[in-house]
Amino acid sequence: MIDLCSQDTNPLLSLPEALARVRAALLPAAGSEKVALKDALGRTLTQPVYSPINIPHERNAAMDGYALAASDIAPNQPFSLHLAGTSWAGRPFQGQLQPGECIRIFTGAVLPEQADTVIMQEQVRADRQTIHFPAQARPYQNVREIGEDTRQDTCLIAPPKKLTAADLGLLASAGVCEITVKRRLNIAFFSTGDELTALGQALQAGKIYDSNRYILSGLLADPGYSIADKGVIADDRDKLEENLVEAAKNYDVIITTGGASVGEADFVKDVLASCGQVNFWKIAMKPGKPLAFGKIGNCYFFGLPGNPVAVIATFDQLVKPALKQLAGEPFTKPLRLTAICTSSLKKAAGRQEFQRGILTQSDAGKLLVASSGKQGSHLLGSFSRANCYIILPADCTGVEAGEQVTVEPFSLFV
Ligand code: AMP
Ligand code: MG
Question: Which of 91, 216, 285, 407 has the fewest CB within 10 Å, making it most exposed?
Answer without folding.
Answer: 91
